[in-house]
Specification:
The structure is a single chain. The protein is built from 28 helices and 29 strands. It has about 775 residues and is α/β, with parallel strands linked by helices. The chain is elongated, with a radius of gyration of 34 Å. The protein starts with a strand and ends with a helix.
Length: about 775
Amino acid sequence: MTTTSQGLLAQDISAKTKGKPAIPISWYGPIFNYSGYAKVSREVLMPMHRRGVVIEATNVGPNDRFIAELNQNQQLAAAWNQMLSTRVERGVGLCFHVPLLHNGADIMEHFRARSPSLSAHIGYTMFETDRLPSGWAKAVSALDRVLVPSQYCRDVFIREGVPEEQIGLLPHGLDWSAYDVPFDPLAFPRRSEFVFLSVFEWTPRKGWDVLLDAWCEAFESRDDVRLLIRASGVRKGDPSPKEQIDAYLAKRGRSRDSIAPIEMIERFIPESEMPTLFRSADAFVLPTRGEGWGLPYLEAMACGLPVIGTRWGGQLDFLHDNNSYLIDVPSLELVPAAFTKANAYYESDHLWASPCRRHTAELMRRVFENRDEAKGRAALAEKEARTIWHSEMVADRLQEECDQVFRATWSRNRQVAKSAQCTWINPLRGRSGFAEEGRHYLFGLDEIGYPVRAGITASVHGLADLTEAEESRLSELAGLPLERSFTAVHHTLPAVSQAIPAADRNVLRAMFETDGLPQRWVERFNTFDELWVPSEFNRQTFERAGIPASKISVLPEALDRRVYEQPHQPLSLPGSGTFRFLSVFDWTLRKGWDLLIRAWLESFKAGDKVTLLLKVHSSLNYDLAEISRQIELAAAQCGRSLDEVADIEILDWNLSGADMSRLFASADAYVMPTRGEGWGRPFFESMAAGTPVIGTAWSGQTAFMDAQNSWLLDYDLVPVSAPAISEASVFEGQNWAEVRIEHLIETMQRVASSPQESQQKATRARREILDRFDRRTVAQQLRTLLN
């Protein structure tokens, strides 16, 4: 048996929990199709998923062909299926979509309406002309935050009336590992010494006419050069791109025979082969008239190609004169009427770039003739693309944005009221479970907008490690004056609770762990107007002890589900066992530590790959040496030495609430053969963390534990023993549970040997706890009691 010090844990935490926990994200938009929006979604979401962020993915506009391609990679498909099946109720929503549909339907409004429980809503979008479509600015301004990929877009949105402080930048990036795979150059046979590539959607915005004019001017049929075009998105009923090219050349008195070859890639190219396409070329060219970002430029850069692009639009965030060749834009021009008629997003007063055809031709010729210079620029471009514009960078920025908007909306939605209708009296800054329970009630009420005052009393168990936001909010709520008519909730020990004469109602929050109450407590309780108990178990025991039923209401305990929805970096736990049982409690006989040690001695021998982790403290002022001595004495009374049994580790760790959730989640099972609980918070938190739980089938924990979600231990109801009464005299004359040792032994062995069966129970338990007992859900029950 060993004791693990707080110092070792501090080192573990500092190494593994850099930065803030990630806010859960609900993502809404195209994901599984061939659009640029969908590709960006995938490039953002997958690195977020890999780093453990909780993501709910809602796909819009699926493409069957793309999904079939995706399903060929089972590991990748499994990751996406996990995101598709996840549900995020408390977190940040992000809608990556055009704000309005062609028919005027407000997608951003729809997104907010379908996810009202989210703490904040972000719109992520872009546009390519000098102004926005009608209604876009209004639609995005109604959100908590607007993200755009480029400084160009940001300027346009601000110019159109979106508040500057509301707009943030979230650039696009790529997972460069996909561009490092080996490729077969024969997949795209080279018929020329030098190949220019252009990849785009077949629309006038992409400047395919500029490209053809420049190609005709730059190269003749005798030049050993070829233009390779991969175009998508031809409208149904229109001629093919090849036919449109021939018609365009004919209007200019040219034909394919009189110019350097132009080759259309007409076969379908799956996304996985796009890096091969880029690497099969020698340069990339796209004289676009407007881009919100320009992802193909970035892909070309990543593949080491010299890039020729327009000197106007979102791509200028990453293209510049040292890493690419920028086409002059002598002027902006009105979007043609034929295009505005075909695409409702573009309006008659919109302007976009008019790339210089002659300069485009000059730059293509320059790249063709000055290949060493072009390779130098391409090398710089590739370096910058891979070191700056990668998907992990985008994930970092998105986490920062979500954290900031979450905090901002949390603060904005919870401004201090002018006065409070209730004061919650509790050691709210304390380290005990009693104080933690009080904070959840207080913050839960505050978060649903109920005006409550923090009545902070002294803590005898030390101060909790509160976050800056929690500490600030406590101070604000503590300074809130009370209304003339108010309720006082005394969430303190009965012995120190005093009714406030000025209060309209004095409520005592109380619980007890046996089958009755001390008589002096009954007399004390009856001086209050109401009693709120955590469970039906306590309702019955209080009534049986003589408290009028009309005074008693059940108010369950609560937790913040957001803490348990966060992905937890596992703690580095001590012990040689591959299966770790955890127990967290005050070292008293009520918690059944003697039963646990006796059962452990009988269950597992030295060499078994199991460890018992005891995170304990002592209200009786036992130090760790004394606790260790009591364990050794218990072993000796059973005729055993601790050297003969599986590891027992005592954790002397002082943990914050967030790190306690990490501890619960890091264990393989939680066990505590308690003799009686008012609620049983460690069971509660273990279940919320998804850890299988073993506990007594009696007292307060049966409010949330049953045979389907946990392992319940058989017991006998017996009088409280004399040694236990010597520890706490209030138990004199009471009865409590005595777990049957044989059943405890059998259950621990079964749980250790059947982790799959246990995990099924734990999965159900986690869902039930988070759904039923989130502090905002419980606060609604509490509001009803207060009203």
